[in-house]
Design goal:
Helix content is 40%, strand content 17%. By secondary structure, the chain is of the alpha/beta class. The chain has a seven-stranded mixed sheet, with helices on both faces. Helix 1 packs across helix 2. This is Lysophospholipid acyltransferase family protein. Keywords: Acyltransferase, Transferase. InterPro entries: Plipid/glycerol_acylTrfase. One of its GO terms (molecular function) is acyltransferase activity.
């Protein structure tokens, strides 16, 4: 209930801030089964748009453990289905916890396999989780403002979903298997970007 409530609040806030969002190919989202929703991480607010675009499905997500040190923020995160992960030294729970969630609850998972907003390399944790939980991977992309100032200018936001990726045919998540998963997902990201707006360019701001 808390997740649904918070998503409703976020939906209103995003509309007030921007009000120019288009959610495309929502019919690609699996019905009556859990999945991992993955996207390239381009802004700090793209997780919010993904959760809103994929409604009414409810999601869990990883958050760095430092965020849970604040008791108020920890309460909000936990009730919004977040769980802590040590990004510097991820232990077995970084895999076991999301696998249990996908298997034993009605929650799907939002993940950014590239890790940070400034990375394009996919990481193997997402593939291993999907394999162990026996769920599909749904690729999607965010295209839109990359700065908060541009978001407030009500520039167009597009969240587009792609066809679910089934990795059950990959026997092992070794180097060969992980490489195949990466190829499939990166190819999906490229195809979805092209279909949404081929002129969109993700530019990383120089620090």
């Amino acid at each position: 209930m808390f997740f649904t409530f918070m998503r409703g609040v976020v939906r209103v806030i995003l509309f007030l801030l921007n009000g120019n969002a288009r959610y495309q190919n929502r019919e690609m989202l699996p019905q009556n089964e859990n999945y991992i929703l993955v996207a390239p991480h381009r802004t700090w607010w793209d997780p919010l748009y993904l959760a809103v675009a994929a409604r009414p499905k409810k999601f869990a997500f990883m958050a760095k453990k430092e965020l849970f040190k604040n008791p108020v923020l920890s309460f909000i995160l936990r009730h919004a289905n977040a769980f802590p992960v040590d990004r510097e030294n991820p232990g077995p729970s970084a895999i076991k916890t999301p696998v249990k969630i996908l298997k034993n609850t009605d929650l799907s998972l939002i993940m950014f396999p590239s890790g940070t907003r400034h990375s394009t390399a996919l990481k193997g944790g997402m593939a291993l989780i999907a394999k162990m939980a026996h769920v599909k991977i749904v690729p999607c992309v965010y295209q839109g403002p990359l700065t908060f100032k541009d978001l407030l200018k009500r520039k167009r936001v597009i969240v587009r979903f792609g066809e679910p990726i089934d990795i059950s045919d990959i026997p092992k998540m070794n180097d060969v298997g992980l490489s195949e998963v990466e190829i499939r997902i990166q190819s999906a990201f490229s195809a979805i970007d092209q279909a949404a707006n081929p002129e969109f360019v993700y530019k990383i701001e120089e620090k």
